[in-house]
Specification:
This protein is α+β, with helices and mostly antiparallel strands. The chain contains 23 helices and 25 strands. Helix 21 packs across helix 22.
């Protein structure tokens, strides 16, 4: 493509400046040229465009002048123009055959080729350019189509599993596709360096070369091709001579690996002879029968099965030896025109007459076969199932008896398959659950069980189906049809296949035990209340001496195991005998109730235990508590009882008070009695001190005053 040139303007007498003269020259050329021209200033703004430029892109002149050139560049090439093309042009002053895309007014992007020069003002004024733009969209599209077409055909040849080759008349190779490596182990270069005869089995060379040399139209030849690793494979090559000048000696060949097919055909021939041997010696009776019942082959097994010789069987129509009640079945088997040789064989059961006149049950597998072009033939394999039919009849009778028992049982009998879908439900479900048997079949057992019982039932089902257990029982809740929950007991057993022993399902019997469960729950609640009363002091509501002794033994063992401290507070109501003498036993009982309530309220931890030890004595057991902590609790109790302000004229304080002994020991190597003895000794010291006091077992002498009772 010619590059536009611009003659440098010459000086004139009137002193016209350089820039004006250049602009006038650019405008003159823009007006007179049929080409696509534009001019930009040093900032890349369009200062002039030709009429053809405007017509090609669809703009009006006032829409483009003054705007930056890059505004008309398509996004796909804009970065290249901004970063590379435009800066390099302004630096070098020219560019040749630069490709990019311009945006038309209607949004289309066209490919263009640009050549431009930049004139600089010798006096240092602003430079100005002129550029010629050529639309190469059609050329680029053609190039893209050619490239895509070549790529498609190359991809087809390079990725085909068949070998595609271009051969000479004499077997020379011009091109071989890459698939040759996967098929033969040779690379395309190795194949092209050899000739067809070099890789063909010696017995097949003459025939293959004859085809290549003399073909006039497309033809196919099957032969053996050598592998690079040794040995040969069968291939099928379709060859077509090329037409056109200079191509008459060329052959386009597609080579396909048919080794598996050829070997399969050989095996088929071998198997046919073996099949005849098997058919003649099989214990099952094998026959080939036409749709009208005519027999063309009968195996020797007919003598043992029916008493006829094969020759006698060939003379008898198949329909003539069938039980009258089963003729329609055999007629359907032979005359079914919808069957094809490629369909799966069907099985039919009917009775056939023996030579002695008796009938036996047989099972026949029938397959449509094509013999000598006749697709109406049937290959029959007939097996004696007389004993099996008798066993099935006995089984049906047995099942009927068991169904009679299940249908009339008050328990609900059911059977589940391995997917836990109910296959049978006895009518007792109406009375137990309120459902009809048909309704129960549509509901999985796990969906009717109470959510709290469902995981346990699912685990039992899994255990039975996995074979880990044969029997299991469960008591759970199940939803009645009216929405309420009832308690049921189910006895479950895994069903096993009599032959292989595999688990085939679960059978169960379910009964309503709601009444029994209610009685059991009432009994359990009564026992619970009885146990609670047995461990509770009837006067104060605190634990009694028995409950205290059990708790002490239990916490003593835990202290020894965990190596923790066990605290004990022994409490005695001061001068309680005087209280009874002054106010009477009823007032004394009320006093003890108030003292017991105050002791219980002063305990802050759920594991602490307050008990009435005997008479006016109380004990507080404090697990995992040292002596200092126990003393704090004891002082809190003393203050609480003092704060009750129960009048006691026989006490020096004028109100009811208590004395407490505190002890705490690590029970790892001592007995529980030591703890009681230590607390009891501290209690007596508290009394000796003057009562209304707390004394610790670790103190040699208690402090003075109530406020100092806790060391």
């Amino acid at each position: 493509m010619s590059r536009p040139t611009m003659l440098p303007p010459t000086a004139t007498d009137n002193g016209e400046d350089f820039e004006a003269r250049v602009r006038r020259e650019v405008l003159r050329r823009m007006a007179m040229t049929p080409a696509m021209l534009h001019s930009i200033d040093a900032k890349g703004r369009l200062v002039s465009v030709s009429d053809n430029w405007l017509a090609k892109l669809g703009y009006a002149r006032e829409e483009v002048l003054g705007r930056h050139l890059t505004e008309f560049v398509a996004p796909a090439t804009r970065e290249h123009v901004v970063k590379n093309l435009l800066p390099e042009f302004l630096r070098a002053g020219r560019c040749d055959n630069a490709e990019y895309q311009i945006l038309c007014k209607d949004g289309r992007a066209i490919d263009v080729l640009l050549s431009a020069v930049l004139h600089r003002d010798p006096a240092g004024g602003e430079p100005i350019s002129i550029a010629a733009v050529t639309d190469i969209t059609a050329m680029k599209e053609a190039e893209r189509q050619v490239a895509e077409s070549e790529a498609r055909y190359r991809m087809f040849a390079d990725n085909s599993t068949d070998i595609i080759a271009l051969l000479d008349r004499d077997g020379g190779r011009r091109y071989v596709s890459p698939s040759c490596f996967a098929m033969t182990g040779y690379t395309p270069e190795e194949m092209q360096a050899s000739r067809t005869a070099d890789t063909t089995h010696p017995d097949d060379v003459a025939r293959v070369l004859e085809v290549l040399a003399n073909m006039t139209s497309e033809c196919t030849v099957t032969y053996r091709m050598r592998l690079k690793a040794g040995g040969y494979i069968w291939v099928e090559t379709t060859c077509k001579p090329l037409a056109g000048a200079g191509q008459t000696d060329l052959r386009m060949c597609i080579v396909r690996n048919v080794d598996a097919r050829m070997r399969a055909e050989q095996k088929l021939q071998e198997s046919e002879s073996r099949y005849r041997l098997l058919a003649d010696n099989a214990t099952d009776l094998i026959m080939t029968v036409a749709q009208d019942g005519t027999r063309s082959y009968v195996s020797p097994a007919c003598e043992n099965l029916l008493g006829y010789t094969p020759e006698e069987m060939l003379l008898i129509n198949s329909l003539d030896t069938v039980h009258p009640e089963d003729v329609s079945t055999v007629h359907l088997m032979l005359a079914n025109k919808s069957e094809r040789p490629d369909q799966h064989p069907r099985t039919y059961t009917y009775r056939i007459r023996r030579k002695d006149g008796s009938y036996i049950w047989v099972e026949t597998t029938a397959r449509a076969v094509e013999i000598a072009g006749d697709e109406g033939q049937r290959q029959l394999i007939i097996r004696d199932i007389e004993q099996r039919m008798k066993s099935e009849q006995e089984l049906k009778e047995s099942e009927a008896r068991y169904r009679l028992l299940a249908d009339n049982s008050t328990d609900m009998v059911f059977r589940l398959d391995t997917d836990l879908v109910r296959r049978y439900i006895s009518p007792a479900c109406r009375e137990i659950l309120g459902y009809e048997p048909e309704e129960m079949l549509a509901i999985k057992p796990i969906d009717m069980v109470h959510p709290e019982d469902a995981p346990r039932l699912a685990l039992i089902f899994q255990t039975l189906l996995s074979g880990k257990a044969d029997r299991h029982s469960i008591i759970n809740r199940i939803r009645h049809q009216n929405g309420r929950w009832i308690w049921v007991e189910a006895q479950l057993r895994a069903l096993r296949d009599p032959d292989g022993g595999a688990v085939t399902g679960i059978i169960g019997a379910l009964r309503d035990i709601s009444v029994r469960k209610a009685i059991e729950d009432e009994l359990a609640e009564a026992n619970r209340r009885l146990r609670a009363l047995a461990g509770q002091d009837s006067l104060t509501g605190l634990a009694n001496r028995r409950a205290f002794d059990e708790a002490l033994a239990r916490e003593h063992l835990r202290s020894r195991r965990d190596k923790t401290a066990l605290g004990l507070i022994m409490i005695d109501v001061d001068h309680f005998q005087r209280f009874n003498d002054l106010y009477g036993h009823l007032a004394g009982d009320d006093c003890l109730r108030c003292v017991g309530a105050a002791i219980g309220a002063a305990l802050l931890r759920p594991g602490d235990l307050a008990a009435r030890y005997g008479g006016e004595e109380f004990a507080v057991l404090l697990p995992d508590t040292d002596e200092a902590g126990a003393a704090v609790t004891a002082e809190r109790i003393r203050e609480a009882i003092f704060g009750l302000n129960i009048r006691h004229a026989g006490n020096s304080n004028g109100v009811v008070t208590i004395s407490s002994g505190v002890a705490s020991l690590n029970c790892s190597d001592i007995e529980a009695d030591r703890l009681i003895a230590a607390a009891d000794q501290a209690l007596y010291r508290a009394k000796d001190f003057g009562r209304n006091a707390v004394c610790r077992a670790g103190d040699v002498t208690p402090g003075d005053g109530a406020a100092a009772n806790v060391a």
